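in:
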């Protein structure tokens, strides 16, 4: 078996290049020092995973200037279906690393979370805090949600509020009801009704409040679409004793490729719609947004800020340049640089580096830099590794690790 190990590692390396599945190992945050004119550590996060790619831990560390200081860490465990059943946060308690909080999960047969309990860490152990109970229909739509609080004096969970939701045959949400617990029974609080068009786009949303023993209208939203189901107008009204009164709305326009080219917000001044703000969007031949301008209305549209976007050959955003209008509210003026964000990627389109810079004294000044590191564990679809029962752990590891293949036969590889 020892003679086979070099080939196993070669096969492992080949599989990683041919069928990459990325796991983020660590993220390092560097801050630029204006005094020393170089990058300095600020924070790092280290991640570990099990053999199925589930994240087991995330550990935060902060740079003190000479060494790393341990911060919060987050630890997860999973059931056989890869559902998270425990999420524990550890941190400093009285100068000692100890339990701070945890979440405990239970699931139904369709892997929907039906019971989530939150607890706080204490010297005596875990103390219940809150609880979330949910039910789901046959289509896995969340139909009810009850939140409870723990009362130590009663040594029991006590209801706080409940949210009930109904769906149509297309799984569109058509009704919601909010209820409050009065100590003995549920009291109605608010309810919401929704309608949809044949494209399953929402066309109206009505909210009502329970007031003095009856339902009273509160707010009404209406939605208008074009033939391509792009949202054109979203209007908002408030109930005024006996009639609906206009309050606010947004109006959008689109190009022939269904890219939104403008978005205007308006408010009702009792007579007509008055402009508030406007966004203008511009796109390249690939329908990637390359420019965005934000304006406000002051007897006319006045520039406030704009953003330029650049992309790589995969249409991933690699640069974001933000400029602001230097003349404040004046209509005449010029654009000046504000800040610049630059992103680089690996061959799998994962973030490698994020660089944030600010414009100062007519030049870009470094601010924050994040660096991401990944590992590429075996792809579970590789038949030879499935049949051999190959397991490599721990993952990731920078020291000793173990390779096991209980079903591997020499003839299958040689």
């Amino acid at each position: 078996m020892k003679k086979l190990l070099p080939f196993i590692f070669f096969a492992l390396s080949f599989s990683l290049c041919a069928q990459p599945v990325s796991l983020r190992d660590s993220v390092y945050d560097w801050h630029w020092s204006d005094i020393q004119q170089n990058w300095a550590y600020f924070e790092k996060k280290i991640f570990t995973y099990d053999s199925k790619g589930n994240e087991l831990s995330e550990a935060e560390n902060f740079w003190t200037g000479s060494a790393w200081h341990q911060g919060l860490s987050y630890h997860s465990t999973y059931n056989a279906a890869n559902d998270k059943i425990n999420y524990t946060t550890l941190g400093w308690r009285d100068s000692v690393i100890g339990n701070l909080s945890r979440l405990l999960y239970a699931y139904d047969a369709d892997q929907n979370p039906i019971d989530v309990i939150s607890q706080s860490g204490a010297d005596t152990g875990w103390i219940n805090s809150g609880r979330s109970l949910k039910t789901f229909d046959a289509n896995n739509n969340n139909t009810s949600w009850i939140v409870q609080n723990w009362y130590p004096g009663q040594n029991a969970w006590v209801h706080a509020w409940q949210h009930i939701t109904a769906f149509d045959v297309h799984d569109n949400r058509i009704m919601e009801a909010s209820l409050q617990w009065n100590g003995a029974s549920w009291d109605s609080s608010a309810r919401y009704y929704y309608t949809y068009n044949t494209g399953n786009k929402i066309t109206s949303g009505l909210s009502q409040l329970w007031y003095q023993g009856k339902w009273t209208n509160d707010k009404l939203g209406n939605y208008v679409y074009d033939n391509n189901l792009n949202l054109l107008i979203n209007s908002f009204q408030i109930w005024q004793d006996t009639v609906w009164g206009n309050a606010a709305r947004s109006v959008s326009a689109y190009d022939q490729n269904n890219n939104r080219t403008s978005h205007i917000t308006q408010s009702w001044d009792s007579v007509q719609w008055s402009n508030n703000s406007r966004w203008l969007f511009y796109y390249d031949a690939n329908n990637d947004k390359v420019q965005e301008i934000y304006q406000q209305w002051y007897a006319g549209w006045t520039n406030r800020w704009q953003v330029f976007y650049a992309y790589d050959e995969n249409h991933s955003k690699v640069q974001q340049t933000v400029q602001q209008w230097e003349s404040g509210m004046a209509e005449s003026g010029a654009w000046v640089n504000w800040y610049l964000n630059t992103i680089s990627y690996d061959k799998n389109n994962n973030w490698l580096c994020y660089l944030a810079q600010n414009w100062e004294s007519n030049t870009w000044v470094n601010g924050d830099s994040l660096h991401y590191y990944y590992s590429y564990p075996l792809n579970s679809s590789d038949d030879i590794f499935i049949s051999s029962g190959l397991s490599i752990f721990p993952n990731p590891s920078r020291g000793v690790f173990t390779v096991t293949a209980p079903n591997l036969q020499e003839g299958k590889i040689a």
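note: Residues 1-20, 380-387, 408-414 have pLDDT under 50 and may be disordered.
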